[in-house]
Structure formats: C-alpha cells, structure tokens
Amino acid sequence: MRDPAWQGGRYYGTGQAPDAGMGVARMVGHVTYLSAPALSDKFGRRLQDSDEIRYTITEPEFEVESYLRHQADSFVRRFDANTYLYTSRALTYFDLARQHGGGSLERALGGVAARTLLIAFSSDWLYPPSASQEIEQALRALGKPVELQVIEAPYGHDCFLLEEARQTPIIRRFLAQPA
Questions:
Q1: What is the rounded distance in angstroms from the CA atom of residue 90 to the CA atom of residue 82?
Q2: Which helix (H) or strand (E) holds 149?
Q3: Shortest CA distance to 68 belongs to which of 40, 37, 35, 29?
Q4: Distance in angstroms (rounded) separating the CA atoms of residues 80 and 122
Q5: Residue-wise pLDDT tens digits, 91-110
Q6: In 10 A of CB 22, how many CB atoms?
Q7: How far apart are CA 39 and CA 29, in angstroms?
Q8: Which one of 22, 45, 98, 121 has the lowest number of neighbouring Cβ atoms within 10 Å?
Q9: φ and ψ at 148, to 5 degrees?
Q10: What are the pLDDT digits (tens) for 2-21?
C-alpha cells in the first residue's frame, strides 16, 4: 500500500500497478514462511554469480537474493494487489471461536460430526502446531474423534507443499479407517 502506484487501490485502467510493493511484500512473506534452518540449508551465504564479493547493493550478491527476486516477479504476475490485500486481511480477521462460538472454540466446533485429521508442521510459523493442538483439545473435550499428526520438518510454512510424501500416507490411512 506504500507503493505510489497503488493509488489507494484505484490503479485499474491507469497503466500502473503496485508491482514493486507487491514484490517486496512477497519477499518479506516468503522469508517468514521458511524456517531459518531451511533458508540456511537452501542458500547459506553462497554468492550468486561470483567467487568473490562484489560489494554491490543494486544487484543480487547472494543466491537467496536472486531466489527472492524471482519469487517476487512470479508472484506479481500471478496476483492482483487488491485481491491479495483483501484475501490476506480475511485470513487475519478469521477467528473461529469469536465468529462462530461466542469466544469458545469448543462451542464453535460443537456441530462437527465428522472424524477430524489435523496435520501440522513443527517449523510452521504461520500455522504453528500449537494452533492445531488447541483445535484437537477442543474436539477431544467435546468427545469428537480427532487425530493430530505433527510432522517434524525444517521448511516452515512451505512444509505443506514440500512434505507431500510424508502427508499422503497419513491421509490415506485416516481415510481408510472405518467411520
């Protein structure tokens, strides 16, 4: 929203879009989705195009910079800034207990009739295992059938994309169980 091209959200038809602001937002977001160990393992302090530091601030010096710029460019081509802002805000505002249970997660989940499988990832900062544990505890308190699996993995929020091979057998086993 600080990108001058955002124009208060009224950039449609102006020939300008807040691409620079969206790119920076994506880079910051991407760093928070990955865990510190994942970033270190993937990039470390490896230089991009040289064996020697060039001491430049205008061009990517490290591999991680090129990666983040690529992710930003790709993101800007795929998402509209206003859509991204409103979707992000909707996710931020969502509070199951407040909106559907008068402040009680148990009340909000009271109508759940299905067995529930929760999968969380140890290094996810966006949806930490503690949030899934709260849901599990509320469902258990209600006598609802619930299973929580926490997968140890170092990739932060991206685990749900990168750990498909570890999630699939858990989901298959859960679905194969009788109701």
A1: 12
A2: strand 146-151
A3: 29
A4: 31
A5: 889 999 999 999 999 999 99
A6: 23
A7: 13
A8: 45
A9: -120, 130
A10: 999 999 999 999 999 999 99
